[in-house]
């Protein structure tokens, strides 16, 4: 119906159409509800800004600009302890790689216990899934604090935190991938008289391998960023160096370290893309 057609209608005809299609034109009640919702959203936003004392930004502007400028003005670079910085970066990469590798391998096994088509026992399946809920429901930073308390300061706590967290999430992803495989291939392998191990090897693994490679590479990249944060709570790696430089007001060195970490993440992303293209034929982005 065009605007010209509506303009040519009589008032009683327009009212009849509105009564016939109240959901399209909306009545006073729906307009009141929409107005109340918008007022509630605006009030909540203003209340949140007031609660978090947003006006402090105006008073802290000079201090903020001085802090930002300190990140970009690098001084006395010849005195920086490059060996410690790159040792911390190497530790961070090793933590991320080892934690993700252990988590991926464990998840590939646990995924079969959590999948509906490979674990007929409902009790075992549900127990496995609830255990995985706990592993991935607790933030990696909390796991880092737990393992720092358990095994002491150092990279081992970071490795364990990444391992537990990645295992919980990857196991769920692998279980879903196993449940969605083509059952004809599995039945074909079983028809040859293959045993359980051979069925898993030739029936299931080839079908979930692309998901395994893709997700593991993504989690390795993600864990590299997480390992940097884990260092802030004492779990080793470059995070400990960042927090030390921050406390000493060496913001130029903090910027240098962060820049190096970003370069490492870019390289990992580039290598991950090459590996995905090589093994699972993913198109380059």
Major sheet = none
Query: So what's the overall shape?
Result: flat
Would you identify the regions where 5 or more consecutive residues have pLDDT less than 50? none
Distance between the termini: 44 Å
Instruction: Compute the CA-based radius of gyration.
Output: 28 Å
Name the assembly state.
Answer: single chain
Strand content: under 5%
* Secondary structure tally: strands: 0
Counting DSSP H or I runs of 4 or more residues, the number of helices is 14
Structural class: mainly alpha
Order of helices and strands: HHHHHHHHHHHHHH
Helical percentage: over 70%
Average pLDDT confidence is 83
How does this structure look, described?
With 285 residues, the protein is mostly helical. The chain is 80% helix and 0% strand. Helix 8 packs across helix 10 (155-179). The longest helix has 35 residues, at 196-230.
Task: Please write out the topology.
Elements lengths: L2 H5 L3 H10 L1 H4 L2 H24 L4 H4 L1 H12 L9 H33 L7 H16 L2 H12 L3 H25 L3 H9 L4 H35 L7 H10 L3 H30 L5
């Amino acid at each position: 119906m065009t605007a010209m057609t509506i303009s040519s209608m009589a008032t009683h005809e327009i009212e009849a159409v509105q009564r016939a299609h109240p959901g399209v034109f909306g009545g006073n009640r729906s307009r009141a509800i929409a107005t109340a919702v918008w007022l509630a959203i605006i009030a909540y936003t203003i209340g949140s800004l007031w609660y978090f004392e947003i006006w402090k930004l105006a008073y802290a502007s000079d201090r903020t600009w001085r802090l930002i400028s300190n990140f970009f003005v690098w001084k006395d670079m010849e005195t920086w302890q490059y060996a410690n910085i790159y040792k911390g970066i190497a530790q961070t990469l090793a933590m991320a790689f080892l934690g993700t590798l252990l988590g991926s391998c464990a998840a590939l096994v646990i995924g079969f216990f959590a999948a509906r088509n490979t674990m007929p026992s409902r009790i075992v399946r549900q127990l496995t899934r609830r255990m995985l809920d706990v592993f991935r429901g607790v933030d990696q930073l909390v796991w880092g604090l737990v393992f720092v308390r358990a095994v002491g300061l150092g990279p081992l706590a970071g490795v364990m935190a990444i391992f537990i967290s990645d295992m919980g999430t990857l196991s769920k992803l692998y279980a879903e991938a196993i449940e969605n495989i083509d059952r004809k291939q599995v039945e074909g392998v079983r028809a040859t008289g293959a045993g359980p191990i051979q069925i898993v090897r030739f029936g299931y693994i080839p079908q979930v391998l692309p998901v395994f490679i893709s997700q593991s590479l993504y989690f390795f990249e993600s864990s590299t960023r997480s390992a940097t944060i884990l260092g802030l709570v004492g779990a080793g790696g470059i995070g400990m160096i960042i927090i030390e430089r921050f406390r000493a007001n060496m913001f130029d060195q903090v910027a240098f370290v962060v820049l190096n970490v970003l370069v490492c993440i870019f390289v990992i992303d580039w290598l991950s893309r090459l590996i995905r293209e090589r093994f699972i034929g993913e198109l380059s982005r």
